[in-house]
Amino acid sequence: MELWQIILAALLKIGFIIAVVVGAFAPVLVWAERRQSAMMQDRVGPHRAALTLPGWAVDLVDSTVRPLFAGAVLCGLVAALAGFGIFWEFVFSTEADSTFMGVSHEGLYILGAVATAVAGALFVGHKVHAGLVDAGGKVRIIGLLHPLADALKMIWKEDFVPPKADKFLHAIAPIITVIPAVLTFAVIPFSDTLFLDYLTDVVPRDGVIQGATVPMQVANLNVGILFIFAVAGTGVIGAAVGGYASDNKFSLLGGIRAASQMVSYEVALGLTLVPCFMIYDTLRLEEMVMWQHTHSFVPGFAGTWGIFLPPLTIGFILYLTAAIAETKRVPFDLPEGESELVGGYLTEYSGMKFGMFFTGEFVEVVALAAIAAIIFFGGWDVPFLFRSGFDLPGEWAFTVPLTDWVIADQILLQHWFVVVIQLVAFLGKIIALIFFQLTLRWSLPRFRYDQVMALCWKGLLPLSLVLILITGIGILVLNQ
Amino acid sequence: MFAEYLPVFLLLLVAVGVAIFMFTMASLAGPKNMTPEKAIPYEAGSNTTGARHIRLSIKFYLTAILFVVFDIEAVFLYPWAAMFRRLGWQGLIEMVLFLAVLGVTLVYAWRKGALEWEK
Prior knowledge:
The complex is a heterodimer. Chain A is mostly helical. Chain A has helices at 3-41, 55-63, 65-92, 105-132, 146-156, 167-183, 225-233, 235-245, 249-272, 274-280, 285-294, 310-326, 338-341, 351-376, 415-443, 449-479; strands at residues 51-52, 138-139, 194-195, 213-214, 385-386, 389-391, 397-399, 406-408, 410-412. Chain A folds into two domains: 51-139; 161-479, no CATH class. In chain A, 62% of the residues lie in helices and 5% in strands. In chain A, 43% of the residues are buried. By secondary structure, chain B is an all-alpha fold. Chain B has a domain at 56-119: Up-down Bundle (Methane Monooxygenase Hydroxylase, Chain G, domain 1), CATH 1.20.58.1610. In chain B, α3 runs antiparallel to α4 (84-112). Chain B is flat. The termini of chain B are far apart. The chains are: A mainly alpha, B mainly alpha. Chains A and B meet through α1, α5, α6, α9 and α10 of A and α1, α3 and α4 of B.
């Protein structure tokens, strides 16, 4: 490829990542976090954030409520009448082409279906409208405005720097936290390779495909996941430097705690993934997904996700523990534990600089969830979805009643649609893992610091070493 | 090599841009209103006493040393894991010996109390 093509493709993919991670995941995460805290701990949920509509707009919107509801009721009545007619036809009518109130057999079916659909649509519109605008004319959109409100609030707060702080280090710490978190997304594959010549065509299921290809990850590095470890490892510097530069005892303690905890769990995090490298026989993330996509151990199934291989089931639990501890979130949030350390290394940060630490943390949560989705949950792999389309188990076909649509075990799909399905599946897996972490976050109490360190050095570390040996013996025995 | 890592540098530039943008917003948009009370280190209401840079437990230092030892171990494990199927039983036995030495290290540190935080 030409240089400008490489740059253009890279910029498009970077734009996509920034849009998805910063534009979509971070707000959803903020929203879900507020929502769950409201449900579990009786706090105020994300619903507080609202846009107030002007008076005339409220009047306009209110004037549509009655017609909408009246229309829904009317269509509901018509649908009920048509339904009764169909029932009457089936039960009481003896003639072959009887009518009900002058409407023929087919007419009743069509009338019933249309009236039901319209009534449903009007009712849903009524409900959506009621959800959007409550009594005060406030648009809330189920609280999705809250992340925006959070960001705006942080920007307009006072940017406080302690007068005796090390100004340079105090300023650079939040920047150091954000950069590596974003950079980890460089090697994460979002879907299967894109074949430019086949965009609106069906790609052959097997064989080598000729023509231009675009890998769906920013950089195609041979070190793969080692790049993530190398970059994510520098994240610890932000917390430690921030705590050191703040000129506050509690900040210093929080920073040093963060440093100790993060380096400890970095070792554990790296070791828990070694069994995966041994099984997949590669360090490249896209090849790990491909391995899960192509290796089938259960007859009839297309691929096998890593979590269904026994060593990796245990590996996943170890990895998730280490990952939550690495992101310093509850129940491992000792570095910022407010009951002991005021605010930990964040004590002397305010406004958007405080927000930058949290942005870094959230992006890191997304990154670690993405790695878990790739290594343990098949990444973009969807069961029975090949690059040519779906191939469901068995050989069968049936025709949908009253139409000539045929549904068979083989469903061929255009290439762009396959890629979109894979993309959505991957993002869905990430969101599911994030929600699981959030549920843990609001369910579990905080550990003590000695327990956190003991869990790493006396628990995860020996366990992952034993797991590596068991995996190694297992692979060699099964291979012979 | 250059073509492989060029997108990484582009992403780095974008990440730096995002970080600088957020930082500049923080510095420019908010009010500046420094008072003597605000300048005191914040300790949730109690008055601060003693030096700001306190002495820290030796445990943090020990953890850092252990981290160096075991992270190097992890670094040796990665290429071995990626080559594992080609090395076979011989590679596994060699790695078991390597891990055994580090296991002894861990047990030694454990028995000496380097992993105890209570005392």
